[in-house]
């Protein structure tokens, strides 16, 4: 029979993708779990496995094409018979003295104990649909759970996991108003040579997110300057040690740890506004996103449970995330669930800027380049001029949830932690 393969739900907030490569050809035999397509979304480049065993009958997409979730990409000819052809066998089994030849063993009711036999592709599908494999009745040989079993189970609505809050429609608050239709651009080629390049994939998705955030969130920005002279000396002393263990000790690593510590004392900054429910969601976990500048645009991988990790662990994990971000090899899980974001333009030489919040988070912290500056030290009694290494910290907040005093309080505490390495080490406990 002919089976259609549609673009599956690729994760949080992803509705479309661009075909990077088609790994199969018409007439090719494919097994379940074999990679058939590469698709680039606004979050990552992902490999998509085949959910079927069969032969490629038709390919309906080409590299460079943008497709939406649910759109048919490839059709397969499979050995599975249509339901109409299977009915006579079932009827024969109902007659006295007749039984189907190779009936699969019945599956016990209730969840299975021990490992569930399923292919990697089926396990991945179960994770994406929020299905517990132990609850899924198996139709495959020897109790194997197939991708179709998982889809059928999810379609019946039997998954024990409720849909995430973000899936609820925001009925209480209208969506951002659509902009008025723009007038056609002038013909720029009348004035000189021009070049047109496609506005798609990561760049287009970033544009949509920024418009959404700017339209829905009233931004307020506060700025602080942080003396990182002692912290930089500490970083230089331990840099080689961390590199030997596979990490990279940057100021962003210290900022992650300091931010997680300070967020515990400022819970509304680690929050989201649920307009539909009329509630503030205070998140008691600290998954911090880090903006990474790649050739295609900004990607924000998420470092989970920052409050429970050492500086060495963060340095190693962040280095790996940054490398995979540049290679577009991040998994969907590594791009989801952020509660607060840090973006550091210091490596590019940027000084001060106004970061836009990652909707639906409540705040974002921007860091600039640490520069030597002349500073008056010693207090009013014995003031003197000294060269100090200072870094700007810019916090943008959602003014629906937070006020300027909240931003100032967060930045003050953040500054105190970073200016005193001993205080930072104490915050690790």
- Helix content bin: 25-40%
Q: Might you state the CATH topology name of the largest domain?
A: Chloramphenicol Acetyltransferase
Please count the beta strands (DSSP E, at least 2 residues each): 19
Second rung of CATH, namely the architecture of the largest domain: 2-Layer Sandwich
Looking at the structure, what is the overall shape?
elongated
Name the CATH superfamily assignment of the largest domain: Chloramphenicol acetyltransferase-like domain
Summarize the structure.
The protein is an alpha+beta fold. It has 9 helices and 19 strands. Helix 2 runs parallel beside helix 3.
What do these coordinates show?
The protein is α+β, with helices and mostly antiparallel strands and 429 residues long. It has two domains: 2-86 and 111-155, OB fold (Dihydrolipoamide Acetyltransferase, E2P); 203-426, Chloramphenicol acetyltransferase-like domain (Chloramphenicol Acetyltransferase, 2-Layer Sandwich). It has nine helices and 19 strands. It has helices at 83-94, 120-129, 147-155, 201-216, 229-244, 251-265, 311-326, 404-419, 421-426; strands at 2-6, 16-22, 29-30, 35-40, 45-49, 54-59, 66-68, 72-77, 219-227, 271-274, 279-282, 288-290, 292-293, 298-299, 302-303, 340-344, 363-367, 371-377, 384-398. The strands form five sheets. Strands 9, 12, 15, 16, 17, 18 and 19 form a seven-stranded mixed β-sheet that branches. Strands 1-8-6-3 form a four-stranded antiparallel β-sheet, with no helix packed on it. A hairpin with a 4-residue loop joins strand 10 (271-274) and strand 11.
């Amino acid at each position: 029979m002919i089976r259609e393969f549609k673009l599956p739900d690729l994760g949080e907030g992803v509705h479309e993708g661009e075909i990077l490569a088609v790994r199969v050809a018409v007439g090719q035999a494919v097994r379940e779990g074999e990679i058939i397509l590469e698709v680039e979304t606004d979050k990552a480049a992902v490999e998509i496995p085949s959910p079927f065993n069969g032969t490629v009958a038709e390919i309906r997409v080409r590299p460079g094409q943008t497709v939406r979730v649910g759109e048919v990409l490839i059709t397969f000819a499979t050995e599975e018979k249509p339901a109409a052809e299977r009915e006579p066998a079932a009827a024969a089994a109902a007659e006295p003295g007749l039984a189907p030849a190779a009936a699969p063993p019945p599956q016990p009711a209730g969840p299975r104990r021990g490992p569930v036999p399923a292919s990697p592709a089926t396990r991945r599908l179960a994770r994406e649909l929020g299905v517990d494999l132990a609850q899924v009745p198996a139709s495959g040989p020897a109790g194997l759970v197939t991708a179709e079993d998982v889809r059928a189970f999810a379609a019946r609505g039997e998954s024990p996991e409720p849909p995430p809050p973000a899936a609820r429609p925001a009925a209480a608050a209208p969506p951002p108003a659509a902009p008025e239709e723009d007038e056609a651009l002038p013909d720029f080629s009348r004035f000189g040579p021009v070049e047109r390049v496609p506005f798609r994939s990561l760049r287009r998705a970033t544009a949509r997110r920024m418009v959404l955030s700017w339209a829905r969130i009233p931004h307020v920005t506060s700025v602080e300057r942080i003396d990182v002279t002692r912290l930089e000396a500490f970083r230089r002393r331990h840099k080689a040690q961390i590199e030997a263990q596979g990490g990279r000790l940057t100021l962003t690593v210290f900022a992650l740890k300091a931010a997680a510590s300070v967020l515990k004392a400022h819970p509304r900054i680690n929050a989201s506004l649920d307009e539909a429910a009329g509630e503030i969601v205070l998140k008691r976990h600290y998954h911090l996103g880090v903006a990474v500048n790649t050739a295609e645009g900004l990607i924000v991988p998420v470092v989970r449970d920052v409050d429970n990790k050492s500086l060495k662990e963060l340095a190693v994990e962040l280095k790996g995330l940054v490398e995979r971000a540049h290679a577009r090899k991040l998994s969907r899980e590594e791009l989801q669930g952020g509660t607060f974001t840090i973006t550091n333009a210091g490596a590019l030489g940027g000084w001060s800027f106004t970061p836009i919040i990652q909707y639906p988070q409540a705040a974002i912290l921007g860091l600039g380049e640490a520069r030597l500056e002349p500073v008056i030290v010693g207090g009013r009694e014995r003031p003197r001029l000294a060269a100090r290494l200072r870094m700007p910290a810019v916090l943008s907040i959602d003014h629906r949830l937070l006020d300027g005093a909240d931003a100032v309080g967060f930045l003050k505490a953040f500054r105190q932690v970073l200016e005193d390495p001993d205080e930072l080490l104490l915050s690790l406990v």
